[in-house]
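User: For my dataset I need records formatted as: sequence, then structure tokens, nothing else. Please produce one.
Assistant:
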Amino acid sequence: MGIGIQFYLMAPLLGVASILQTTTANRLVVAGVKPDLVLLIVVIWTLIYGGSSGIIWAFVGGIWLDIFSGGPMGISSLSLMTAAVVASFGHRTFSRFNLLVPILAIVLGTLSFSFTYLGVLQILAMLDVSQGALPFQQTFDNIVAPSVLYNTTLMLIAMPFLNRIPDNYAAERNL
């Protein structure tokens, strides 16, 4: 499968993942959190194809999430884009075939996604655009930390498949 077809499949894949994340993933709740499927896809894409395209797909995936979740428009895009920037360090600086790189990418990506999302919600609460402020420590303990563990577990499950996907270097050599 060439890189061109993957780009055409990415937008519908993110759309389906966001629909699953906002509807069906409620049945996969563990420790009070559900999987961040779109975040996982964006981090994997960024590890394979780099930060530039990862940021673009983070924006697209965030729009999909915001459409289906009912949250403030643009907040998921901004949060996913920060996660893609963090994960992009694992593209060329380090090898994604190293066990620690995808794990660190999803841990740091989940943390940057969560803190950006919560930070924007906090700013909106201070501006009286949304109702109520979130208690940081409770939110971190009950949502962010379990999300990090859940997403890390999903990345560990996805790693054998991740390492079988050729990166853009292999695609460029085959042209």
